[in-house]
Amino acid sequence: MALEAIRENKLRSSLTLLGITIGVFSVIGVMTAINTLESSVQSGLNIFGTNTFSISKYPVVVMGDSKHWKYRNRPNITFDQVQELKKRATLPEMITGMDAKQGLKVKYKDNQALKSVQIAGGDEGSIVTYNTSINDGRNFTESDVEHLRKVAIIGMDVVTQLFPFEDPLDKMIKIEGIKFRVIGITKPMGQSFGQSQDNYVVIPLTTYLNHFGSRRSSLQVNIQAKSDALVNQTKDEVIGLLRVIRDLRPQDENNFEISSNEELIDELSVFSDGIKIFAFSVSVIALIVAGIGIMNIMLVSVTERIKEIGIRKAIGATKKDILLQFLLEAIFLSEFGGIAGIILGVFGGNAVASIFNVPAVISIEWGFFGLFVCSIIGIGFGIYPAWKASQLDPIESLRFE
Q: N or C: which end of the chain has fewer CB within 10 A?
């Protein structure tokens, strides 16, 4: 009888379903989209593995202008400091210094890279920081860095732009008019968040600093421990050595930042959690509005069917029967709208994955949560109209016109 009452009022029921669908869609869609992006960011941050960390002048995330000035006033991490750290440290498997910038012109003959190519300075360990390896040619050597050689390793996006019909190896490219010989090509990484991960040129760090560096250049140092078990010991050694190299007193705090995959993910999770709370709050408001719509429709339905209620009571229906019938109508409306909202929410949330070219994430737990919330809304906002219907006097109801 509850389903028959819904079918008899198709337009009204459809509008009520639409309100619930939109509310649930906002919850499931937003949460699925956030989980998709969060999963992609976390996988993207896992570049080096669990046994690697980095040191830089600035933290990954800076909150507030006052803190920005605090970090800006720190002394730069220089090439000499990195070299001294390499000499003294015994535990790290690899120590590599890097710096990069964009906006420089990169050309080969008449071909110019139209996309903004990242120009990076590095050494023999820098290719690891791009989460790739040499596909063709060779890597840098210590001699390349020591003698400021003008050689370059390029990503596949640069190959596509500058060498559509030629083998790039041993060819001379120009960066801001300065010639560099291509000695290596890296394996392609594809795209992340719609951006190419192969659009870069790496040159020896000393050459980079000599031609494109400035007094504001501060290096990022990537350190790889020999094993996961030695990460903490390696960190302690590197911190101690770097404090000595940078002339810090025992009472001084570190004037550099140490970051690892876990710390980066923790930093970003603070922001994603805040976004989730905000989005969830807005979605809850949408669901409450939809619930109010259900209550309003059910009250109208009770008023329209007073005589029907009187007839049912006259032939033996109890208050419980009437209460259950109208309550089930409200629950059915909520659940049907909720299921539609969950389906649309999953597809809508994962549309973000296709836009940003990241793996889709189907949040099963949020689907169950959506159904649970719809049940609560159906019961919570349908109980009063159902109770009101069950309390009607059968004689007065039969007289109602």
A: C
User: Which of 255, 275, 292 is the last residue in one of the domains?
Assistant: 255
| 237 within a domain of the structure (yes/no) | yes
84: left (phi over 0), alpha (psi -120 to 50) or beta: alpha
Consecutive H or E run containing 298: helix 261-304
Question: For residue 263, what are the CA distances in angstroms to 54, 61, 165, 239, 258?
Answer: 11, 11, 44, 16, 9
3-class secondary structure, 217: coil
Reported residue count of the chain is 401
Structure tokens at 284: 């809850």
265 DSSP 8-state letter = H
DSSP at 147: T
Residue pLDDT tens, the chain, 401 long: 767 766 777 777 777 778 788 877 877 777 777 777 666 666 655 555 567 888 998 886 665 555 667 788 889 999 999 999 999 999 998 899 999 998 899 999 888 988 889 999 999 888 877 778 899 999 999 999 999 999 999 999 999 999 988 999 999 999 999 999 999 999 988 766 557 788 999 999 999 999 998 767 889 998 888 888 888 899 999 999 999 999 999 899 998 988 876 666 666 667 677 777 877 777 778 778 878 888 888 888 888 888 888 888 888 888 888 888 888 888 888 888 888 888 887 777 667 667 666 666 666 776 777 778 778 888 888 888 888 888 888 777 777 66
CB neighbour class for 177 (10 Å; exposed up to 12, middle 13-18, buried from 19): exposed
251 and 284 inside one domain: no
E strand or H helix at 333: helix 319-356
Last residue of one domain, picked from the residues 224, 255, 286: 255
Cα angle 387-392-396, degrees, rounded to a multiple of 5: 170
Task: Look at residue 61 and tell me if it is in a domain.
Answer: no
Whole-number Cα distances in Å, 124 to 61, 97, 144, 209, 300: 28, 10, 9, 16, 76
Distance from chain centroid for Cα 193: 9
Give the count of beta carbons closer than 10 Å to the beta carbon of residue 265. 15
Name the residue range of residue 16's domain.
2-44+267-399
A 10 A CB-CB count for 343 gives 15
Residue with tokens 């003294």: 88
The verdict on 236 and 292 lying in the same domain is no
> What's the gap between Cα 47 and its chain centre?
15
